Amino acid sequence: MRGTVLDGRYRLDALLGHGGMGAVWRAYDQRLERHVAVKVIRDAAVGAASELDSRFRREARLAAQLLGHPHIVAVLDFGIHRGVGEPATPFVVMELIRGGSLSEVAAREPRLSIAQAVEWCAQICDALAAAHEAGIVHRDIKPDNVLLIGRSSGAGHGMVKVVDFGIAAMADPERTRITRAGEVLGSPRYMAPEQTTSERLPDARVDLYSVGCVLYELLTGKPPFEADNALGLLWAHAHTEPEPPGRHREGVGAELEALVLGLLAKQPGDRPADAATVRDRLRSLVAGIAPAPPVEAGGEGGGKTEAKAEGRVDDKAEQRAELARLHGRLAADRERALGADHADTLRSREDHARSVGETGEHAEAARLYTALAVDRARVLGADHLDTLRSRANQAFHVGAAGNHAEAARLYERVAADRGRVLGPDHADAFRSRNDHAWSLGESGERAEAALLYEQLAADRARALGADHPDTLGSRFRHAWNLGKAGQYVQAARLHEQLAADRERVLGADHLDTLGSRHDRAWNLGESGAYAEAARLHERLAADRARVQGPEHPETLGTRYRHAWNLGESGERAEAARLLAPLVVDRDRVLGADHLDTLLTRACHAWNVGKAGQYAEAARLHEQLAVDRARVLGADHPDTLVSRACQAWNLGEGGHSAEAARLYAQVAADRERVLGPDHPETLRSRENHAVYLRAALGG
């Protein structure tokens, strides 16, 4: 069709791609003298030709409602090309986007950051919220239908635009199912179960399911389901539960994983309520995800790999700084051109504040959000959602800058106002209460934070259900803060109950279930129930090795806690026996200078000494002291501890004079580093005297 002029206006110049719905061409609008994209639709995708004229007129009005949305590729025109002796050919004219699709970006960058994946899907949901409100269901959300602009490779989040909303408006929904000939119209990898199995026409929740598929793939590098053919994929969507994404990607938090799995629910009624709700939850999540540089594929450490990574971090830092400068200039220019109170000016100021926060300048971001909240309250009203959001972001950055007590005060007020404006059971009201409690805990008020989380868990259970991920999350934070407040027995009891409920809801092998089992065992150990804690950690280590792998850091950490508690229970020789191979494993997996490797060596040496093998323990502590001095510094408290332990084991092994000499040196160094009245300084001076007297035969 190259060279064909559609509707006497659009000349098809170059084929850009093709898919199940038709072919996309780069075209030239001869009337307005501009380049556009034109999708020529296969007649099978839109139904009988006799229906086209009326459907085009109807759906053109719907698609026109989406014009100007920042995350939707604008549909500029519809038409039906009727060539001489040719069947009627429908087409859609769209803005030409110069950028790749998400599928192309993911192929180039298989380890996208979690923040990028979440932000892009939030933007997709923003587009869907507008479309669904206009009565348009896309029914074919997939990475190929999401274009990315404003981002060079690896630079910032960029902005996505969803394409083919015009096609969605035109398409006959009955034709997105399996045809009589067995042809699948749509994208089986991203299709909701009801698109092929339901007797009723699919509603907007099919798009939410597809977003879940896209987000899963961006997070893990693989789709939630794979099969040899389209029918196999459709069967999997209908009958197979997806593996939690956290099993394929570290760093996927419990709330994000729960949201992904909620989007992938088989029954539409089990998915989130609407696209706007998903958008807001994703943006709340991405606000708490620290920007992270990409991981060097296959890197095992060492100078060359670290130098590359450091270079990329510097590049990203500069790109984030440049983005903040761009948003700052745009906000200033819009204020000059449009006025300080114009909606676009206020939105640019919000973009500026957010990008400043992404550079790590949280204090400055807090200042910008504070000023923005004041102006939005004046222009839009104190209870406007944008005003409340600015205040919440102000609180976030105040906390990120280190002032958790002030952040808690700000969040408390935002939570109260959101509860009053939106209702006490609204997701944003619950979220602000969560952030208030979290900030209070970080400020040191653990007992008060635990009380707030207890109340929040009860309210979420009433409003959302006892098994809702947010309810379980609040119960976790309640128990966690109790433990941090020193109420170990009560915390262990709550973690035990939570582990049982998470196992029932999420499964025995879910990472959150394993995490609750760990927290129960940890609190028992801190309470002094060492033998029981050791038993629980032993069983958990075996399960983590099976689920996460024997070399996973959490598996190694659980093995450490098993051995530590065993030693504290009096089984020193057995603890030392378990720790010796763990030292080797952590050295191999993490590196000899990793802090966890050094800690394991210290625990091993300590238990060797406590088992009565003083000479061997002194040798191990001496070697560890040398390595800690090299890695941490000669004056680091851990280095000084290793030197003191070496001296103690020498003294207990009968070398009192040498022990006294070493304790004298440690006491002098601790006095210089920690101060003369520090308990460790005083203890070293006391041990110096003890072993000096022993050396004198007293």
Give an account of the 3D structure:
The structure is a single chain. Helix content is 62%, strand content 7%. It has 698 residues and is an alpha+beta fold. Among the domains are: 5-95, Phosphorylase Kinase, domain 1 (2-Layer Sandwich), CATH 3.30.200.20; 102-287, Transferase(Phosphotransferase) domain 1 (Transferase(Phosphotransferase), domain 1), CATH 1.10.510.10; 613-698, Serine Threonine Protein Phosphatase 5, Tetratricopeptide repeat. The strands form 2 sheets. A 6-stranded antiparallel beta sheet has the order 1-2-3-4-6-5. A hairpin with a 3-residue loop joins strand 2 and strand 3 (22-29).
Number of helices: 27
The tally of beta strands, per DSSP, is 8
The proportion of residues forming helix, as a percent range, comes to 55-70%
Query: Proportion of β residues?
Result: 5-15%
Q: What is the CATH architecture term of the domain at 102-287? A: Orthogonal Bundle
Give me the CATH fold name of the domain at 102-287. Transferase(Phosphotransferase), domain 1
The low-confidence runs, each spanning 5 or more residues with pLDDT under 50, are 44-50, 152-156, 169-185, 290-314
Largest sheet: 6 strands, antiparallel
How far apart the termini lie comes to 105 Å
- Indicate the structural class: alpha+beta
Overall spatial form: elongated
Radius of gyration: 31 Å
What does the average pLDDT come to? Answer: 84
CATH class of the domain at 102-287: Mainly Alpha
- Strand arrangement, major sheet: 1-2-3-4-6-5
CATH homologous superfamily designation of the domain at 102-287:
Transferase(Phosphotransferase) domain 1
